[in-house]
Structures are given as structure tokens and as C-alpha cells.
Amino acid sequence: MLNFSVKEADILFEVLKARRDVRGNRFLSKPISEEHLDKIFQAALHAPSVGFSQPWKFVSITEEAQKQKIFNIFIEENEKASELFKDTIYSDLKLEGIKEAPVNIAVYYSQKEKAILGQTSMDQVGEYSVVCAIQNMWLMARALNIGMGWVSILDSEKVNAVLKAPKDHKLIGYFCLGHVSEFLDSPELESLKWEKRKNKEEIIFKETF
Amino acid sequence: MLNFSVKEADILFEVLKARRDVRGNRFLSKPISEEHLDKIFQAALHAPSVGFSQPWKFVSITEEAQKQKIFNIFIEENEKASELFKDTIYSDLKLEGIKEAPVNIAVYYSQKEKAILGQTSMDQVGEYSVVCAIQNMWLMARALNIGMGWVSILDSEKVNAVLKAPKDHKLIGYFCLGHVSEFLDSPELESLKWEKRKNKEEIIFKETF
Fold first, then answer.
1. Less Cβ around it within 10 Å: N or C end of chain A?
2. CATH classification of B21-203 is 3.40.109.10, yes or no?
3. Where are the domains of chain A?
4. Is the pLDDT of residue B17 over 90?
5. Using a CB-CB distance cutoff of 8 angstroms, which residues of chain A are in contact with residue B18?
6. In B, which residues are within 8 Å of A62 by CB distance?
7. For residue B136, what are the contacts with CB-CB under 8 A and spacing of at least 6?
8. Whole-angstrom Cα distance, residue B116 to residue A162?
9. Whether the predicted model's global pTM rises above the 0.95 cut
10. How many beta carbons lie within 10 A of that of residue A76, not counting itself?
């Protein structure tokens, strides 16, 4: 059985802290090697999944025409969002990297209609398994010095149509990946004071709330 | 800017592969040190969150009386689940470690009613941020040689009542943590052939499904 050393635990912690949500103003056009991309997918496939159901599907997108269609969906949704944040810096923020990133990956949840061990009381744990896979990819990418960004300002149904997703598949997240000019030292929305970092006292409780 | 070496990326990959869902038959009663528990929470707090909203709350549970109440909820839900899997090995499987694990942690999603940057089109990305924090905890725990297991066979509303969760809080996951007698070499449900490991060809697509 593998016992990790303090030094190895420290390396994991450094990766966790250095991971950033990367947008189009930091991506380089340099392609991601097949070897790196494979490692990122392998990281996903080692995620935990309820009842070992592995309910994940991935679509990698590199063609300009596909990216442009997704980008158009972003623009439409982002115009609606801009309205909600009108007296803020929102419209100055770069919130995606669809066209700049050499690789985009759409991550889906898909589960056959059968009872899954562990999913009988809290059904959403199936989708949550897919999110665990996403976080594994994000960390693996960072350790390979590859940036990844989550684009959530999208209409899922329109994305499904572009990617020809089967009807029972649910889009969990859409990601941009690529080498970067830099990883910021801290989350951009923290540096810009969009939101404050929360104190542990506000969020960690003992025995009950 | 931190550039990770191939060796460091390999260490992350080892941690990803060695992480297991640990149940009560592997937990030791040895307490988790405050230092280790703090490190696991720090890992959570470095997770990505939509719009830097950090919509997570954590309740750590160590008192026997609290654990017993949660265990009773598990028993009730698991009896229902057993019916669905009756001609299988289901009832022989140990599916939680609530009482054996020295620490239980309930993880919640809580978000004030305001527009969150990035959450205006796909609302569930708030909950998904919390799951990213969970995966960070799981990996950090493993790197510290501490086991963690997800207990999903629970009625959330009953857990909320035991933990006195505010009405607008949503239970995302309930976890058991402790030192272990062993980490299995492969997922137990894989070794038992409950489910087969999927091939990459079934789950990774190019450009469209």
C-alpha cells in the first residue's frame, strides 16, 4: 500500500493552490500534445464515481467552426448576463477562452436507466461524480503547466445541439485548455475585489450549524 | 510563476490513482490531528468556485450521539435500497463508516439570493463548485494517508434536521474520514465485478458525439 511522504503531500497542496481559472487573455496557441491530453483524460477516469458507475462522457473540440458556434452561444448568454451586472466592471472581464484555447472539452453526465448502488437516495450524486472527474482534470492540467477554464455562461440546450448530444445526456461543464502566458498568483476576482475571500469561521462548524 | 516538473506531475497522478472510497471496515479509531484536519479544509478552500462565490459550508461531526442519529438515517435508507438490489451481493457490502470513522464531515451549498458572476445561465455550477472542494479534500486526505468515504444513502432532509441546517442550505455530500488499515489496490466494486471499468473509446468523442 502506497504511503505518501510529507513532501509529496506538500506537492499536492502546491498544485491545489496554483490552479487557476484561465481565460482567453492568457492562452497560447501552442497545441497540447496527445500525451498531455491523454494524461488529463486519465486523471478524469480515476475520479470517484457512485457505485463505480463512471457516468461521464467527454467531447474534445479543436475545429474552428465548432468553436465559433459555441462562442456565439456564449456571446448571446453573456449579453443577458451583462444586463444584471450593469453598473460594474463585468463587461470589461474576459470570461472565456473558447477561440484562443487550442482544445475545448465538453463534459457530460449520462446514465442508463437502472438502479445505481449509492444513488438511490440522493440522485444528484451521479452528476457530482462527473464534477469530481472535472476537478481531477483541472489539477492534472495544472501540474502539466496547462491552463484550464470553466465556461458556464452558455445555454446547455444550444451546446447540446452543436455537439449532437444524445437526449438523455446532460452538459455538466464546458472547458478551455491550453498552455498559458502566465498563471496569476491569486484568483482574478479576488485581486479585483469582486468578492472577498471567506474566513474559515464563517464556513466551518462543529457538530451542528 | 510556478512551473511544475514531470516528477511533480507524476506525484499528483499517483495520488489520483491511489485515492479510494473508504468504508467502516478499513477505518482505525486513531484520531485525525488538528493539523491534518486543517490541511484538508485548506484544500477545500482552494477549490475553484463560480464567480469566486465560495458557496460552501462544512460541519465536522465527532460526537457519538450525532453519529448515531446519522447512522439511523443511513439504516432506514439502506433498507429501502436493499430491496432494489435483492438478488445481488448488495446486503453484504459495507457502504458507510459513520460510526467507525473518527471524523464525519457534512458539506453544504449555501448561496445568498444575488446574481453570481458565471452562474446566470447554468445555475447548478454553484453546487458543482462545492463538489470541486470535496474532490480537493479527498485528494489532500489521501496524500496525508487518511481515508475518506462518501455516504450517499441518506435522506438529506433528515440529515439537515440533525445538523440544524438553515432552510436555504443544501446537503451536497456526507463524508467519513480516518486513518485506515489499508487502501485497496483497486476500487472494491471493480474487484467484485459489480461494474466493469469503461474503455476510453466508449466515453471520449471528437468534435461531436
1. N
2. yes
3. 21-203
4. yes
5. 2, 4
6. 206-207
7. A16, A135, B43, B44, B46, B47
8. 26
9. yes
10. 14
